[in-house]
Amino acid sequence: MAEPRYEAVVMGASAGGLQALKSLLSALPESFRLPIAIVQHVDASAKSYLAEILSRDCKLAVTEAEDKADFRSGTVYLAPTGYHLLIEPDCSLSLSVDEKVNYCRPAIDPLFESAANAFGPTLIGVVLTGANQDGARGLQHIRTRGGCAIVQDPESAESRFMPRAALDAGPVDHIVPLSEIAPLLGALEGQTLPTTGSKKAGAKGGLK
Amino acid sequence: MKLASAPRSLPADAALGTIAEGPSALLAGPQAPREDVESIELSLLLEAIRRRWGYDFTHYSHASIRRRLDQARRAAGLANFSDLLSRVLHDESFFDRLLRYMSVTVTEMFRDPQCYRTVRERLIPVFKTFPFIKIWCAGCATGEEVYSLAILLHEEGFLERARLYATDFNKDSLDIAEKGIYPQRAMDAYAANYHQSGGRGEFSDYYSSSYDFARMKGFLRDRIIFSYHNLVTDGIFGEMNLITCRNVLIYFDKTLQEQVLRLFTDSLRHGAYLCLGAKESLNFSAVKPLYETLDSRQRIYKKRGLVAHG
Ligand SMILES: C[S@@+](CC[C@H](N)C(=O)[O-])C[C@H]1O[C@@H](n2cnc3c(N)ncnc32)[C@H](O)[C@@H]1O
């Protein structure tokens, strides 16, 4: 039987996120198979052209998430303005207009927490630049379920508050500059999962 | 070692997916425990609620209901969903309080102003050819949506010839809706929506303010009948000319969405309209062929007639 591998990626970004996501997504190869769901905080009143902007340089399909659509490999899904994006246990996408979380809708924590519940140890979570503490709690939840937690090195972030908050919340697996996140995801995609035991032993917020 | 729950979208795991769906000691073997404990507890809790109190949440989106039940669990100071389950089974007043967590009441007046503009520009001219119309606002929450519709109808000189039914399964929300009293602060924010939606008057003419509160004017309230209706378990509301059900279907799984869309179809007259939320559509539904799309962006659909007519 095949060794378990990573199956999905979730990302959260706020202030400075558009530039960060552009550079990160454009660095992913066309062959990258893991489905990606992203929450980028945007001004609720602004019309969202996020998907258009990000799809320009990205080799993967970039689309706004639709309620109850499949979470498909080779595709990047963005939370629509004004809606939380969640992952269901059957790995379909769900939208909600629940209360704002961390003053935001969409917010990163609900995406991360629901995805962690759906995927457990096969999920990778990434917290990028931002001036908010959204995502910190969700990233820890991903780790509690055995998933892999990545934080953009605050020194390389346009706004370091969000990565800092994510690091302050607890241990993570990788702290890397923006330019190294895409290569890291590529490497993780090719790996089999660390066993639960070795992961616990070796994961104390170390740089990689 | 614990194996992750495999996404059904990834073909390599299709075989595992079938095992996970029908857990059987024989088939499962050493890799059986794919589901995390909490999701097992969640299923049992929803089943208990259904059998004990008749509220069926088993076909709600699990991700969202799990978040809300978790809030309820924390507020009650309970360790896990199993403890919550035991309280729910034995304590009716506890369940009543829990119900409030299960319904998301977030709403606005003239939410998605463009949608109201389309109703005004495209539906009203049709309604004006009828002597009388009936509108059902399903999942009306605290009433902001149905008051918005009443204001629109009033400005079109049509309110007297309309009857609006506003339903929800959250009794607390219905109480607020019936009173029509909202924080003044919220009204100030809704004024912008109102003007964007094509509002022709002064928004403040539709309520009277005292201190920090605004009360909707009686002539609007008089045309609206508020009542309890559970979309999962209750029957049709017949002969409607328009049904609006916005931001409710996203809380349901596909099976329940389909069931409720059937209910709406059976409640609409031929040639009548269905208006869904900005992120809801008929695209993946079996009822799609029964409708023509009036405005795909605003999610407004028209039920086809028995005989074709232009
Ligand atoms: C997010 S609110 C939407 C309010 C309003 N339609 C809007 O778009 O602003 C969802 C509403 O659906 C109601 N709802 C959920 N399940 C329901 C059911 N089974 N029957 C009736 N109403 C339900 C909730 O109580 C809540 O008031």
Walk me through the structure.
The complex is a heterodimer of chains A (208) and B (310). In chain A, 31% of the residues lie in helices and 19% in strands. Chain A has 208 residues and is of the alpha/beta class. In chain A, helix 3 runs parallel beside helix 4 (136-144) and helix 4 runs parallel beside helix 5 (161-168). Chain B has two domains: 2-102, no CATH class; 113-303, Vaccinia Virus protein VP39 (Rossmann fold). Chain B contains twelve helices and ten strands. In chain B, strand 1 (133-138), helix 8 and strand 2 form a beta-alpha-beta unit. Classes of the chains: A alpha/beta (208), B alpha/beta (310). At the A-B interface, strand 5, strand 6 and helix 3 of A face helix 4 of B.
Summarize the topology.
The complex is a heterodimer of chains A (208) and B (310).
Chain A: E1 8-13, H1 17-26, E2 36-40, H2 50-55, E3 61-64, E4 75-78, E5 84-87, E6 93-96, H3 108-119, E7 123-127, H4 136-144, E8 148-152, H5 161-168, E9 174-176, H6 178-190, H7 196-202
Parallel strand pairs in A: 1-2, 1-7, 2-4, 3-4, 7-8, 8-9
Antiparallel strand pairs in A: 5-6
Helix pairs in contact in A: 1-6, 3-4, 4-5
Chain B: H1 14-21, H2 25-28, H3 37-53, H4 62-75, H5 81-90, H6 92-102, H7 113-127, E1 133-138, H8 144-155, E2 162-168, H9 171-179, E3 181-183, H10 184-196, E4 207-210, E5 213-216, H11 218-221, E6 224-228, E7 240-245, H12 254-267, E8 268-276, E9 291-295, E10 300-303
Parallel strand pairs in B: 1-2, 1-7, 2-6, 7-8
Antiparallel strand pairs in B: 3-5, 4-5, 8-10, 9-10
Helix pairs in contact in B: 3-5, 5-6
The structure holds S-adenosylmethionine.
